[in-house]
Amino acid sequence: MAGRSTRDNAVRKPSSASAATPEATALWSPVNSRVRDRERKRDAVIQTAARAFRARGYHNTSLDDIAAELNVTKPTVYHYVQNKEQLLFECFRAGLRQIMEAFDEVGSTKLSARERLGIVMARYAEAITSDFGWCMVQAENQDLSPAMSRKVKSLKSEIDQGLRGLIREGARDGSLRKFDEKMAAFAIAGALNWIAHWYRSDEALTAAEIAERFIELFSIGLERKA
């Protein structure tokens, strides 16, 4: 992009409203110049953005704000993402990646479909209560470009199909009763997504404990009747 600086190491003093976190600042510190790598810095940009979007909202957060929180220049942020919309998408994808990894992990086990569904739900709840939870739930509502909106919907569809697949397998292996897989998947995802609207990090229950209670609730509704 014309006019952008190529000085990746340039830093600036953060504003009083958004000081850099020690972990993020350390990635650009001269002391760690020999151990810095692009992926770690890119991850720091994405996680910092996710926290900012959750705290202030997407439209109320600028790339200048994110750069200030990282204690770097705005061109440095542009080194890792093309624009703010892509940054939101990367936050969204980082959260969903945790769920997709859970599907991959349980796919190679000999556990029943009900047990595998429980593991996926637990990881889903953990993702929703993470820094990326707000972006996972709200990304689609942020006036995205048609191309980006399609990408978001495609990834959400993968999660939906994964849930439906486990529900179908549960009916086949007898660990779950037969049920409308589409409605069941919608109900599970909807309930888990809603956690992002009310969960706070200082809640009495941890993410794992919340997931356990959701799993118990849905298991009662889905378990095979004698």
From TrEMBL:
<keyword id="KW-0804">Transcription</keyword>
<dbReference type="InterPro" id="IPR050109">
    <property type="entry name" value="HTH-type_TetR-like_transc_reg"/>
</dbReference>
<protein>
    <submittedName>
        <fullName>AcrR family transcriptional regulator</fullName>
    </submittedName>
</protein>
<dbReference type="InterPro" id="IPR036271">
    <property type="entry name" value="Tet_transcr_reg_TetR-rel_C_sf"/>
</dbReference>
<dbReference type="GO" id="GO:0003700">
    <property type="term" value="F:DNA-binding transcription factor activity"/>
</dbReference>
<feature type="DNA-binding region" description="H-T-H motif">
    <location>
        <begin position="62"/>
        <end position="81"/>
    </location>
</feature>
<feature type="compositionally biased region" description="Low complexity">
    <location>
        <begin position="14"/>
        <end position="25"/>
    </location>
</feature>
<dbReference type="InterPro" id="IPR001647">
    <property type="entry name" value="HTH_TetR"/>
</dbReference>
<dbReference type="InterPro" id="IPR009057">
    <property type="entry name" value="Homeodomain-like_sf"/>
</dbReference>
<keyword id="KW-0678">Repressor</keyword>
<feature type="domain" description="HTH tetR-type">
    <location>
        <begin position="39"/>
        <end position="99"/>
    </location>
</feature>
<dbReference type="InterPro" id="IPR041490">
    <property type="entry name" value="KstR2_TetR_C"/>
</dbReference>
<dbReference type="Pfam" id="PF17932">
    <property type="entry name" value="TetR_C_24"/>
</dbReference>
<feature type="compositionally biased region" description="Basic and acidic residues">
    <location>
        <begin position="1"/>
        <end position="11"/>
    </location>
</feature>
<feature type="region of interest" description="Disordered">
    <location>
        <begin position="1"/>
        <end position="25"/>
    </location>
</feature>
<dbReference type="Pfam" id="PF00440">
    <property type="entry name" value="TetR_N"/>
</dbReference>
<dbReference type="InterPro" id="IPR023772">
    <property type="entry name" value="DNA-bd_HTH_TetR-type_CS"/>
</dbReference>
<keyword id="KW-0238">DNA-binding</keyword>
<keyword id="KW-0805">Transcription regulation</keyword>
<dbReference type="GO" id="GO:0000976">
    <property type="term" value="F:transcription cis-regulatory region binding"/>
</dbReference>
